[in-house]
Amino acid sequence: MEHLISINCVKLLIATLFYTCVLSSSVEQKIYVELNNTVPCVRLLNATHQIGCQSSISGDTGVLHVLETESDLDWILSSGPHPPYMVIMETAFFNRSVMMRMKNSPRVAGVAVIVSKTGLADHFSPHTTCPNQNTGLYSENNAPELANCNMTVWNPFGNGLSYEDFSFPVFALKDENQTQVIRKCYEDHNLRVNGSAPRYPLCAMQLFSHMHAVTDTVTCMRRTDLQNRFSINPEVLCDPLSDFNVWTSTRPLNSSAKGHVADESVVIAATRLDGRSFFWEQAPAAEGTVSGIVTLLATIQALYPVTREAPPPRNIFFTFFQGEAFDYIGSSKMVYDMEKNDFVIDLNNVHSMLEIGQIGLRRGQSLWMHSDPVSRRNTSVDTEVLNLMKNVNSAAAGLSVKLDQPSFSQPLPPSSFQRFLRAKQIPGLVLADHNTSFNNRYYESMYDDAENMNVTYPPNLSPDEQLVYETEEAKSLAEVATLVARSLYMQAGGENSRLSNITADPKIVAQLLYGFLVQKNNSWFRSLLPPEVTKKGDNSILSSGPPQFYIGLGPRIHGPVHSVTRFVQYILANLTGSVTNLTESQCQNPSEVNTENKDFFSYFWVSGPASVNGTEEPFCVQASVRLSKAVSPAFELLQYGSRDYSTWTESRWKSIRARIFLVASRELEMLTLGVGVAVLLLSLLVTYFISSKAELLFSSARETPTTTY
Amino acid sequence: MPNEEKLSLCRRYYLGGFAFLPFLWLVNVLWFFKEAFLKPAYTEQPQIKSYVKKSALGLILWVAVLTTWITIFQHFRARWGEVGDYLSFTIPLGTA
Predict the structure, then answer these.
(1) What ipTM does the predicted assembly reach?
(2) CB distance from B94 to chain A under 8 Å?
(3) Cβ-Cβ contacts under 8 Å, B85 against chain A
(4) How far apart, in whole angstroms, are the C-alpha atoms of residue A219 and residue A356?
(5) What is the pTM assigned to this prediction?
(6) What pLDDT tens digit does each residue of chain B (96 aa) get?
């Protein structure tokens, strides 16, 4: 009987323990409020420096304080009684002077920046004033009077914040609801009452963004190598920035034949595919990048019908370079491949080059044709450049685009063309909407979005109506695209009689602008992409909102190919490809089919437009669109300290998160600890005392049972 | 334990410590300190005393060398760059 009772007692005990263990996590939920939508700033390294932000390995905690006025800044930096502080920074205060004061202060545990348009300054660019100054064409060895922006400061509003090294975490608060939660906690507990300091318990925030890599790329790659060779559980510390360039050509090129192609003269039309900002993976890059991408895509769309009917003597090679924000990763790789005869063409095949820079903020003014004064000292190159300018000028006849040239001695703006000129003096132009300094007041920042490019839609339009609505900007970019297409056709030696047939469609430009600036999950993009991408839901590249143009770490580490690269690849397939009647398995393995040529074409299985009753009919598209690896040659040559090539890497990390909770005063914590230690010592003392006097204390109890028998 | 065995144990630990094993000397000093200095004299005691003294000397030398090296390494490893990394078994993440 007693046996059964004890078994039931044990079962009851186990059941209670089980329930308490399962429910005990709710205590953590009662203390901490997890902030789910976090946008951190991460650490990037190059050959000599580290930039970005770092937190301690167990997070940085600080008492919340909202920075709204100058007196708040004094409170945080000198007079507040509860350091260290976690600063909630209003948009207006996110500038160089405030951040440098925070950087030098030991009283700041971290910064959370509220990202909004209210209070935004007239200009904000965290990039440097002279982008890519060390890896371009102009250096101490080659035209030092033009190097380091001695002649023209391209980004005068640049404050260089992206290139500073902060020892505390900096997060961005983009979600308005989450910011409201934080503000409420602050107002409930941390507000000053009549000028006196707030009392404990106070609202605090903890930010975790511990980065593994330190010092520079050389150190980080060396330590990664050591880990890989000698450690049982190797820990990778950093990864090189890498992705893919996208290229296509009017006459398909044999991708299995590398090196010089006999009798092939190529005109290159290029633009960049990427952008960046202070925070990780945030780069709307509207004026900086999207204007160029959209214009070049529209140019390709305008040229293709005519180049099919009446192919010009020269081939036109279109390319989108990835990674240009980080010392020209994509273009340096392509030039390196061309020099090593590892690409479909080489530098001797290149006749001339036309690059599209930032052209979105023209506002009816002129389009500027930038050229390189150093290579133009050579008369043959100069003649070719003048010829190219003449072609562009005559292509502008009948269009509302005016053209202009900067002064002769002005250097090229930061552009991929500079990397080509480093290898060989090729005649070429860079088209831009600016003369001496960028028109873009938010270059490489989170605020370079659709509004910066004046792409706004009337209210009360459904998403599908917005997709096809032609804004003024769309029409303006379509004009520029027509100009570029006609100039390229003339430069490639095409007949002048065909020029009037080359026009860019403003509807396509409007759809591209909508997809790249406002919403990438739209019906047109969905029809271009493969069915498995459109069906995946939230985790795929078709999540809601505009695409972000940060280069990322490549498919080995970050899942599928970068979203922007995929979009450009499939849009090109749609604009330049032809429909075939291959089945899905034949489309994935075209070498098995005799009529198809894998060397000259790629095959894409796309969804097709969604029909009314929801059924899709995917089909196979054949196009001469290719991807080429865009990773800096420094990583192939293992020259991690290279001065010639980009050496940018991104650190790895374990977890990035943020949470808010209430903290008690230090005195209360010490008191609790002290009481606990005292209870421990007391209990030890009592136990020792009782055990040493055991016979005395318990002997009287033991005697009584014997007396009953 | 008979005194001859104590002497031979003490000698073995003393000799073993020369094989880069300073802990044997530490153990030697701790075990035989009472025997060598606090117990009344017996025949083997002077030899045990000398072994304990020599073990203590070796121990102090080792402690000094190790403390110096560890202090220098911890302080300067970051500054040594490549050499520091090749000398390290585990390198902390995120700090120099």
Answers:
(1) 0.82
(2) yes
(3) 219, 222-223, 226
(4) 37
(5) 0.90
(6) 788 888 899 999 999 999 999 999 999 999 888 888 888 888 888 888 899 999 999 999 999 999 999 999 999 998 898 899 999 888 888 888
